[in-house]
Amino acid sequence: MENQNKIIFEINKIISEEIKILNSYYNYDLKRFFCPELFYGSAFLAFFNIEDIPDFIPDKNFKINNSLDGRENITFFDTYKIISLITGIELLAIGLNMHTSHENTFRKVSGRSENSEKNYTIELLFGDIFYSRAIAYLINFDNFIIFDNILKSILSIHRSRMIVHQKIKDIFDCGRNNAWFFNKGFSEVRMLNALLKEIFFTGIGVSNFDVTADKTKDFLMIINEMVLLKTYNDLTDYVRQAAPESFESSHFKYDEDFLNKADDLRKSLNIKINRLEPEWIKENFLKLFFKLA
Questions:
Q1: Is the pLDDT of residue 94 over 60?
Q2: Would you report the helix, strand and coil content of the chain in percent, each value rounded to 5?
Q3: How far apart (Å, rounded) are the C-alpha atoms in residues 32 and 182?
Q4: What distance in Å separates the CA atoms of residue 109 and residue 231, rounded to the nearest whole number?
Q5: Can you tell me the mean pLDDT for 10-24?
Q6: Which residues have C-beta within 8 Å of that of residue 34, sequence separation ≥ 6?
Q7: What residue numbers bound the domain in which 18 lies?
Q8: Nearest alpha-carbon partner for 77 in 64, 67, 58
Q9: Residue 137 belongs to domain with CATH number
Q10: Bond before 244 cis per omega within 30 degrees
Q11: pLDDT tens for residues 38-92?
Q12: How many domains in the chain?
């Protein structure tokens, strides 16, 4: 994964500089909201056979053969634009992380009632700033359809979070179990990581991935399970953050616990990913899986 690591290194430098500039105005631990492994970026790059490029350097463009079955599938890899796109996506991810931080997301769950002005915390402020910085990088990719789809996914996430967080509040206020998340609320749960799913599909489109291939359904199933695994991991954190002082296992049905669902998905994904061919795309998805698991 040497070439992918070079791209990740360049993006980390850009984002670290963005954080440094913001910290020069206000001393706050912004790095804790940033994942330097670039999970979203790795999801996008999973469909590119970039390790096949000899002498890869981040300031040059390349042609890549993203072949799945031995037939040529040549794609132009515009390094500058792709680095800009991934940087924008990861800045959005930081904004999302800040908007869901413990200090503001569960303020109402814990029973505190404050007006909207007081509820606008430093985390929300910085989250909005990261959103605005992300726009500049996303625009550099110069594709309005991708830009629009990414922004729509952010709106979907915020809408679903409001509904899901209210249901988490109900768990603690009314002593309910979490069955709603797996039944009536499952469609909302699936939208909690709409950005990640959008990035997977963006990677498919930009890489000219052969969606007519016989194994397309295998990749789509893996994508859905990866998105759902991240969602169950997130929900586990959300619930534990909501009221850590009163968290009890009795709030859950054992067989519907998010942790158990996540464990089942890990086992399923491990089998499915190890069956992928050719080797280059299996390695890309395994690397992504290990970051998630």
A1: yes
A2: 70, 5, 25
A3: 30
A4: 20
A5: 96
A6: 15, 19, 90, 94, 97
A7: 2-292
A8: 64
A9: 1.10.600.10
A10: no
A11: 999 999 999 999 999 888 898 899 999 998 888 899 999 999 999 999 999 999 9
A12: 1
